Amino acid sequence: MSVNQTTAANEESAVAAPIAEPVNAMPPEGKVGARPADRTDMVGKALGLLVLLGDEPRGATAADISRRAELPFSTTYRLLGSLTRDGFVDYEPDGRRYHLGLRIFQLGQRVSNHHGFAGTAMPILRRVTERTGEATILSVRDGLHHLTVSKVDGPQTFRVTSDPGHLGSLSTTAVGKALVAFAEDAEREKLLAELPLEALTGKSITDRDAFRAEIEQVRRQGYAVMDEENEAGMRAVAVPLLNDQGHAFASLATAVPVFRLGLDELIAHVPLLQEAAAELAARLPQR
């Protein structure tokens, strides 16, 4: 249930700073506290707010988040206050906007280190970029998206915008196609049947039979390409990182603006990417 916009705005303007009330505060003496299932549900709601804030690089007001989460304003505000108190969310008083806090970044870095992406992957990505002069990107699959876990920009001034933490399309990107093509057989068939085919540019593949044919070609040739299907003016080539069963647990790409490299010139980097992918596959945990 969403809160009326006028009511939410009035409630929000009545306070100057987020409430720092703990989600799991003990009930007053003599009263029955929330049931364990209710508390678990509140944890889920709080995590949901973090996910929503992750989609708001400029931050959002409590009223905005309340509407998007379809939660009562009072519940949203209380949860944001608790998350702010513990450093998971930052509060900007001037604009009364909330942003993801440094605690999230800290945890993300720990996850990255745990999986070897920071210490192990980055030197290899830097070596690839030194050879190509272009951006090198390492991604994993996160449900129906790919997640950028590491990136090294090239020395050129034109930057690739897929920074670590970015969630992107599986169907319109080279890294995504490589992850789909070399997924386990049953998972690949499920993705081919159910994956949303987004029209992000005029070149995006939106026909399911055409996408299936594209994935079969990726499997035959061992690499995937993106030629302005995800973003106008950009192209990329990607190869899978394969586990012991021959299934992709990550993918590695070189991405360039179209004015700098033609498709054939880009594909010429495939052997270098495959060499780096094999080295990464031998060093990274294969999840």
UniProtKB/TrEMBL annotation:
<dbReference type="InterPro" id="IPR036390">
    <property type="entry name" value="WH_DNA-bd_sf"/>
</dbReference>
<dbReference type="Pfam" id="PF01614">
    <property type="entry name" value="IclR_C"/>
</dbReference>
<dbReference type="InterPro" id="IPR005471">
    <property type="entry name" value="Tscrpt_reg_IclR_N"/>
</dbReference>
<keyword id="KW-0238">DNA-binding</keyword>
<dbReference type="InterPro" id="IPR029016">
    <property type="entry name" value="GAF-like_dom_sf"/>
</dbReference>
<keyword id="KW-0805">Transcription regulation</keyword>
<keyword id="KW-0804">Transcription</keyword>
<dbReference type="InterPro" id="IPR014757">
    <property type="entry name" value="Tscrpt_reg_IclR_C"/>
</dbReference>
<feature type="domain" description="HTH iclR-type">
    <location>
        <begin position="40"/>
        <end position="102"/>
    </location>
</feature>
<feature type="domain" description="IclR-ED">
    <location>
        <begin position="103"/>
        <end position="286"/>
    </location>
</feature>
<dbReference type="InterPro" id="IPR036388">
    <property type="entry name" value="WH-like_DNA-bd_sf"/>
</dbReference>
<dbReference type="InterPro" id="IPR050707">
    <property type="entry name" value="HTH_MetabolicPath_Reg"/>
</dbReference>
<dbReference type="Pfam" id="PF09339">
    <property type="entry name" value="HTH_IclR"/>
</dbReference>
<protein>
    <submittedName>
        <fullName>IclR family transcriptional regulator</fullName>
    </submittedName>
</protein>
